[in-house]
Amino acid sequence: MPTSPRRGLRSTSSTPAVPSGDSTVSPSGVVKRVAPSSGTPASETARTIAPRAVVARAGLYLRQLDAFKGQGVHTVSSRQLGEALNLGDAQVRKDLAWFGQFGHPGVGYDVIDLAESLRAALGLDRVWPVALVGVGNLGRALLRDRGFSQRGFQVECVFDKDPRLVGQRCEGFLVEPVERLAELLAARRIVLVVLCVPADQAQAVAHRAVEGGAKGILNFAPVALSLPPGVDVVPVDLSIHLERLAYHAHHAGR
Amino acid sequence: MPTSPRRGLRSTSSTPAVPSGDSTVSPSGVVKRVAPSSGTPASETARTIAPRAVVARAGLYLRQLDAFKGQGVHTVSSRQLGEALNLGDAQVRKDLAWFGQFGHPGVGYDVIDLAESLRAALGLDRVWPVALVGVGNLGRALLRDRGFSQRGFQVECVFDKDPRLVGQRCEGFLVEPVERLAELLAARRIVLVVLCVPADQAQAVAHRAVEGGAKGILNFAPVALSLPPGVDVVPVDLSIHLERLAYHAHHAGR
């Protein structure tokens, strides 16, 4: 946990997109969960954590810092860090201020120091155990993917509802019955869950996960989940990547 | 194509992360392709297209505008649009300026107009045919996913190298031999390709796709692709979503 002072949570109550005191997330993932509307004081935690969009950009800064490091660059300015992501230097400094006080005026940021501090602030200086629910095609593909574990996320538990799969090994993992989801998450203190179940089962499975103490759900099911405050959902929206490519193809002409 | 004036391409040559005149993309996707270094004039197209990070944010603005629309909101300010994504209003205006001149001082943006203009500027006011290569677990999962087609991306062609799959139907699609990739892309004028092949085949398959006229490649293989300028690659990095969840779980405590 970083000890540096953090900014308070900026009010988002003027944004019509945010349903107060709710954690419903649109399929696009742009509607954020916020603390209950004024009158109910936000918890201490809620007041000091960075908003989702800022955390997402922090992940991009981290990757860019790692790229700088790989190129032997020792020091960067907020301007250089911003240029790589086409963000203004003021925006970069504002974003980073959520995670601590970094850098020296006129000198910039030490690439390695900033990456390490950011990693610690983001909670990425440890291995996170992850549970995966649903070993259909997508679930199997994700279990084979080494990308997660390379970045510190270790699948420890795999679930399915199909009795033909339960008790079998899948990509090396023993498949547990989804009925045991809450019990095993709690027992193994797993708070991150990857949901690869069909849309019509996602809400019920997510509820079981929350019962077991899940705090974060990566949702591949094409459905919006409604969950209690304190549980974060990231819906995976692959079409946004195709949109980026379409823009460039559109302008490249043919 | 939008006819409004656009900003020129800002120089990124001072950013050490950018390999000049190259389109190599790191697995994190943060290293951008740029026009060849000074001396070689950038093409007319290269000078007027928005950088990748800006296009990615445009996709988020679009989703937020759709959310506003769903809530019956008619007009928004750059501040409100920014707040939803925790971006400053200056950053929002700067980003939108890449795509045209929108909004009225003191009034803000008309939600429906801005969404439509942005959609047109991004090339999303049409259906894009897409080819998918590799019908393993991930490929099959993506073929089943209705999310792509809901946002205007239609899979029209499916390829694999496995002779047991070629000629068969997979999720309703006839599987073509990967040897015909270039030929069929060109014949059907498909410029967007989703790559779901193993890492050791990705580079070779991507080259075939480029031969067939591919302009954009969504790369699920955990390997960096090196492709000629003018071809855009988006590597899919799912761990960034888990990082976001980890941050919140880290601070929610347990």
From TrEMBL, chains A, B:
The keyword NAD applies. SMART domains: CoA_binding. It is found in: Cytoplasm. GO terms for molecular function: DNA binding; DNA-binding transcription factor activity. InterPro entries: CoA-bd, NAD(P)-bd_dom_sf, Rex_actinobacterial-type, Rex_DNA-bd_C_dom, Tscrpt_rep_Rex, WH-like_DNA-bd_sf, WH_DNA-bd_sf. One of its GO terms (biological process) is response to redox state. NAD(+) binds at G134, V135, G136, N137, L138, G139. It comes from the Bacteria. GO terms for cellular component: cytoplasm. The keyword DNA-binding applies. Residues 10-27, 37-46 have a biased composition (Polar residues). Residues 123-224 form the CoA-binding domain. Residues 1-46 are annotated as: Disordered. Keywords: Cytoplasm, DNA-binding, NAD, Repressor, Transcription, Transcription regulation. SUPFAM superfamilies: NAD(P)-binding Rossmann-fold domains, Winged helix' DNA-binding domain. Residues 60-99 bind DNA. Modulates transcription in response to changes in cellular NADH/NAD(+) redox state. Belongs to the transcriptional regulatory Rex family. Homodimer. This is Redox-sensing transcriptional repressor Rex. It comes from Isosphaera pallida (strain ATCC 43644 / DSM 9630 / IS1B).
